[in-house]
Amino acid sequence: MRPQAERRRFSPSYKLKIVQQAELCKDPGEVGALLRREGLYASHLSKWRKLHKKGALEGLGTPRGRKPDPETATRQRLRELEKENQHLRGKLRQAEAIIEVQKKVSEILGIQLAPNDDSEKRNL
Fold this sequence. Notes:
The protein has 124 residues and is an all-alpha fold. Among the domains are: 12-54, no CATH class; 81-121. The protein contains five helices and no strands. Helix 1 packs across helix 3 (42-54). It starts with 11 loop residues before the first helix and ends with a helix.
C-alpha cells in the first residue's frame, strides 16, 4: 500500500515572492524555468497573479472554514458574563459577612462606628 500524498500548502508570502519573481522574468522560457525550479504548475502562477491583482496576497490570507455564527458568539459572551456575575456575587456575600463580623466585634469591644448611609440604603 502506497503512502497517501500530502497536499502542499503555500503561504501568502511565498505566493507573493513567486509572482514578483515571475514579473521580473523577461526572456522566453524564464517563467517556465522558475516554475520547474520551484516545482509549481502554470495554474498556480495564474491563480496567484489573479489574487495579487485583487490584493489578497498582501495580507495574511483569508481564513478558511466555516464563518463563526454570531448567535454562538453572543451565547458564549452571555455565559462568560453570567460566570463573572456569580463570582462577583460570591465576593459581595463574603464582604458583607466580614462587615457583619466587624460590627459585632465593635459592639463587643464597645467601639462606636460611624454611621454609613450607603449601607442602610443598599440593603439587598
